[in-house]
Structure formats: structure tokens, C-alpha cells
Amino acid sequence: MNLRTRVLLFGGIIGALLGVSVAYLYLRSAPIEVDESGQERLPAISPGDAVKVGLSILTAIRQILGLGRPGGI
Question: What are the backbone dihedrals phi and psi of residue 42, each rounded to the nearest 5 degrees, phi first?
């Protein structure tokens, strides 16, 4: 297995584990609402919070990309 394949495989596994961990933490922290028909629902995320999370993710990606450059971040 060459280096590119190993790095992509490792990144995919880490990304999947991170995604499941974040989803688990979100489910633990968010209050689950039950409607009249008994369906469970999560509360809606405000647009402002969605923008904050999106910018935080982009910042983290930018920092990770900076690790590959000479001199680091």
C-alpha cells in the first residue's frame, strides 16, 4: 500500500470517528422534543449558530492544511 492510500485511509477513518463522536455529543446535549404523534425531534439550529460552526470548521481545515507547509502554521 503506497503512502497516498495509507494517508487517505487514515484520514477517512479519523473523519468518520470524529463525525460519530460529534453526533453523539450533540445528541447528549440537545433536548429531544416529542410531538403529538410520538415522533422524536431535535430543536432547529439557528442560522447564526450554523454560520459559527461552519466558520470554525473552515478555520480548522485551514490550520490542518498549514501543517503541510514548511514552517508549520
Answer: -95, 150
31/61 same-domain check: no
Per-residue pLDDT band for 73 (boundaries 50, 70, 90) equals: low
Tell me how far apart the alpha carbons of residues 35 and 37 are, in angstroms, rounded to a whole number.
6
**Domain that includes residue 17, residue range:** 1-42
Q: Which residue from 50, 30, 55 is spatially nearest to 40, judged by alpha carbons? A: 30
pLDDT attached to residue 67: 85
User: Which residues, 6 or more positions from 40, have their beta carbon under 8 angstroms from its beta carbon?
Assistant: 32, 33, 34
Structural contact between residues 21 and 15, judged by C-beta atoms closer than 8 angstroms? no
| Number of domains composing the chain | 2
